Structures
1.
Amino acid sequence: QVQLVESGGGLVQPGGSLRLSCAASGSIFSSLTMAWYRQAPGKQRELVAVITGGGITNYADSVKGRVTIQRDGAKNTVYLQMNSLNPEDTAVYYCNAKNSKTGGSYWGQGTQVTVSS
């Protein structure tokens, strides 16, 4: 079982930046592929960025160049640095962990990001 606790969401003006954090516990962090998803009102949940245990990253086309996903093994934490935010980035952002050995998938509670002037 993996527990995920997200933080860092909030209200930001267009063009601003936010850094989301997701602290993981309950499993060996290096065995987890970590990802951020988001879900806007009336839309399906979509993948924003993913980072494997080995540090390989991938991003949705809509955020490439504006978003960076990083992981800190010492803190068992994954970060999502978001820059040049626009209103279309408004959504609840969810952290996800997949255990490559067991296949288990776990979700955080979500954190709201609102981009508005």
2.
Amino acid sequence: QVQLVESGGGLVQPGGSLRLSCAVSGAFSIYAFGWSRQAPGRQRELVARISSDSITRYADSVQGRFTISRDNAKNAVYLQMNSLKPEDTAVYYCHTLKINWEPGDSWGQGTQVTVSS
């Protein structure tokens, strides 16, 4: 079991950038991780995934704009978000992934990202 704590959310103008961080305690290197987001009135969306050996996968909605990475020395997962759009506004969650790359059982508390002028 791991514990995850997100940080780095905030208010940004359209076209801007943010970098989200996820600090992980417990076992780290064996896990795959993902970033999901939840906006009011919308379904939760899994936007980025990274395997234990740093293979990545993205939702079409963020492909080319978001980059997920991990630092095994720091037990941290990151989500670099560029060219942000108002529709990226959501609470972003870091979480583990199951072996089938679907969301696992360990989630952080979430961090709010608001894209607005």
3.
Amino acid sequence: QVQLVESGGGLVQAGASLRLSCAASGRFFSSYSMGWFRQAPGKEREFVASIRWITASTRYADSVRGRFTISRDNAKNTVYLQMNSLKPEDTAVYYCAARPKDQLRWDYWGQGTQVTVSS
């Protein structure tokens, strides 16, 4: 069982930066691939970024590539999402997710943290 707690959201102006954190409880954090998703009002949840469990290879949605960076610190059981050059369209609730190794389904989800970008 893995519990995820996000933090770091807030209200910022366009062009600003934020860093989201996701602290994971439980054992074997390094055996989980981690991801960030977001859901804007009236829209479906969408993939933002992921980082693989063993290689730490990363993937990004086209809409955030070059602006967002996902990273992980296995010693701290934490995954981060550094968000730069934020745009109003980045406004959403951001969710952290975890899945064992290379499993396709994301099994564990955090409660979400609100990010609001004003123009």
4.
Amino acid sequence: QVQLVESGGDLVQPGGSLRLSCAASGSIFSGKSMAWYRQAPGKQRELVAFITSGGTTNYGDSVKGRFIISRDNAKNMMYLQMNSLKPEDTAVYYCNALTFQYRGSWGQGTQVTVSS
């Protein structure tokens, strides 16, 4: 069964850093482009960043220069290093395949709260 488990969220002050982790099982990860998404209260889920199986990365404008996405193909793991965090980064963060046809069921996500 395909599973996605996100971890690493926390309460952090503006300007702080966090590292999120995503553990993927099954065929969702291998050879697929993977992505981080986030959903803030009252807003739709949005794409934050994605990484291809070969390591090419792409970022949303709001996080470019502050977040770094990476993956470990041998471990079926993906990461999101978040630096210079802002209150508007507050959201539940999810991982999943970039392409709809390869996505698994959404995990529970991990809560990131940026507040002083």
